[in-house]
Structure prediction request, 421 residues.
Amino acid sequence: MDAPYPIMRRFTLRIVPVLLLFITVLVVTTSMATKTVLETIYLQLATSRAEGIADGVKRIAPVSWAKLLSGENLDAKDSEALNDAFHDERIEFRVSKIKVYDLNRLTIYATDQNKIGQIENGPGLLKVIKTGLGNINSKTLPDGEQLYELYVPLYVDGKIKTIFELYEPVSYLDAILVQSSRHVIIYPGILFLILIASLYAIVSQSQKNIDNRTETINRLRHRLESLVSRSAVKAVRRSEHGGEIPSELVENSLLYSDIRSFTSFSEQHTPGEVVEFLNKIIGLQVKIIHDCGGDVDKMIGDAVLARFQGANRESDAINAADRIQTMLVGGDYARGLGIGIFSGQVIAGGIGPKDRLDYTIIGDAVNVSARLCSLAQEGEIVVDAETLRKSSHSSFGEEHSVSVKGRVGNLKIHKKIVTGS
Prediction:
């Protein structure tokens, strides 16, 4: 209850990871989509270049080109004509290497003459033959150079006539990818990071406000709780959603104390001196009562009413009274106390109108404890016989009967005069 709501910690542990994951997924998917689009465009360009190369070779060496496509044997003159034509077109279209395959995967032309006549079983070529669509594969040459293999079909009259394999440096296409991805990845990523930073600043300021308000509320609550009993605080916390505070019948041992000759003390001292004395003597009682497991129900001028609950309530009440009297008798106090102790049932609950409740205890036991207190002289403790019997104390005087105002019949009591330590 005292701790402020940890909005900053929850934002950091729950929201920020989700935002970062979202940014990562966005960047990855955008990169993949951009790469796919660029590869498609690049394949279309490669197809146009292959068609341009084929048209150029056909224009330069039409007979040799026709023989190549038809699968006829090429003589030395044809090979030379084709090599010259492909060389010119390769330079014009800036292609480093070229291979040309027939539909049986046979290499019918290659920049490297040693590769002509070989059967190609690479997945890129097989995919083109099967689907009729171009594709890109990366390849690392023995000398460490990395290239992209672009397989593109060459159509004649609506049918695949041959397949071109063009080689491009990896750096060329990668540069295009980086350039194209910059606007669709980097800038949105920066914007999202700015968004996270802005949210972080807002949540951080909110956490400070929550902390300050919680601190103010707790400070006010603690001050208000110091004005009422612990039992009252517990009762309020038990009432759900600000509902009515329920009353309950409880067994208590009640300690009632009153300062002797307080009226004469007040007449002889200033109000400030009177308040200082009350704070000192009542502060002593409250501390001891709490230490012994009791709760101060109310302070009525110079009188204190305390309640003890639990299995050892009788012993706890007498222990508190004994310690209080011992401290007062042995201390430097201008006046002493009389203390009465009585056990019985009381009603604990909120008394009064809804806008001004007083959580307290009422019942005959409260009245009797006050009457026993009035019988006690300064330094004395008066307790009823039943309470003493249930406690573990045996240092009280003999039992005798007294008449208590407001009660039928006499009450058996014991007295003890505390002489100090």
Summary: The chain has a mean pLDDT of 84. The chain is about 50% helix and 25% strand. The first strand starts at residue 97 and ends at 101. Residues 7-175 form a domain with the Beta-Lactamase fold (CATH 3.30.450.20).
